[in-house]
Design brief:
Blueprint: E1 16-21, E2 28-30, E3 34-38, E4 44-51, E5 57-68, E6 72-78, E7 87-90, E8 93-96, E9 101-108, E10 117-126, E11 136-141, E12 144-151, E13 159-164, E14 167-172, E15 178-186, E16 199-207, E17 212-216, E18 223-229, E19 232-237
Parallel strand pairs: 3-12
Antiparallel strand pairs: 1-11, 2-4, 4-9, 5-6, 5-8, 5-10, 7-9, 10-12, 13-14, 14-17, 15-16, 15-18, 18-19
Length: about 240
């Protein structure tokens, strides 16, 4: 199962549409869409929420734990009790004026053991129900989900790549996730530089511990794999 990650990616599921007043608008921008924490030294992070619109912005923040990240990301546990929650997001509600910025602090309270702990934090804009309505207009509010990874100490991914003709097989045999930012399938012949012509970009994926992924290639030429683990980046050819 491919996971397309970026500033506006898995966020589409939080799209909310409703009828509201006026022609003004409020637009939400987040400073981070992926938060990568390393236990035990780095267990908190602040996300800046910016309203670059002309209306006030009202946001609700909700954190959930992904129960089975390598299998089904839809299996989630709502963190209702702050006394037992492995990740806290504070504050839970924001009121942000036009061109104003506010911060939400994420605090990891659970230490990972063997593998990454994976959370999703939703930033959902809400309608200002106190406003009066004289003229109806259609308005769309887009919410965002932030991926939060809490990595165990000394745990690393172990990416194994194999190829059979036009099929590329990936396995993460390590204890921490690895991000395959993108793939570039090139025409037959040696790959010389990152700017080679005749290369087709293919979507990337995040592989959690123990996860495998198969990719069908458009041709028999070499494939560049752009791989990231935290701040480390490397490129391999297969």
């Amino acid at each position: 199962m491919a996971r397309f990650e970026g500033r506006k990616t898995t966020l589409a599921a939080l799209l909310a549409a409703f009828l509201c007043t006026g022609a003004g608008h409020a637009d939400m921008v987040l400073s981070d869409i992926i938060v990568d924490l390393q236990a035990p030294g780095q267990m908190r992070h602040d996300i800046e929420v910016w309203n670059n619109g002309r209306d006030s912005l009202f946001v609700e923040v909700e954190a959930t734990r992904v129960v089975d990240p390598s299998g089904d990301e839809t299996k989630r546990e709502t963190l209702d009790d702050p006394r037992t929650a492995g990740l806290l997001a504070s504050p839970k509600r924001l009121a942000i004026g036009p061109d104003e910025r506010k911060r939400v602090r994420l605090v990891a309270r659970q230490m990972p053991t063997d593998e990454d702990l994976v959370y999703r934090v939703a930033f959902v804009p809400k309608e200002n129900k106190t406003s009066t309505t004289q003229q109806l207009a259609f308005k769309v509010l887009v919410g965002y989900e932030v991926l939060v990874l809490i990595r165990p100490p000394n745990a690393r991914p172990e990416l194994v790549v194999s190829r059979d003709g036009r099929k590329l097989h990936f396995e993460n045999n390590g204890k921490s996730s690895v991000l395959l930012r993108k793939l570039e399938a090139c025409a037959a012949g040696p790959v010389v530089a990152a700017e080679d012509e005749g290369c087709q970009e293919l979507p990337g994926n995040r592989l959690y511990a123990g996860e495998a992924w198969d990719v069908d290639l458009p041709g028999n030429g070499p494939v560049r794999v752009f791989e990231s683990y935290r701040s480390e980046n490397r490129v391999s050819v297969h």
